[in-house]
Amino acid sequence: LDFCAEHNIVSDVEVIDIDKVNESYERMLKGDVRYRFVIDIASLKK
Fold first, then answer.
1. Predicted model pTM
2. Could you tell me which of 14, 22, 33, 40 has the fewest CB atoms within 10 Å of its CB?
3. pLDDT in tens, 2-19
4. Domain map (residue ranges) of the chain
């Protein structure tokens, strides 16, 4: 992580709520994904 910070290396992500996991999986199967999905753990409390 330090190396990435020093060299401005970032990743593109799409943050999703837990209730969008199935929809996101379907999008992945269709090839409709540009970024990595990251699940917002705070959405587990909803």
1. 0.70
2. 22
3. 999 999 999 999 999 999
4. 2-45
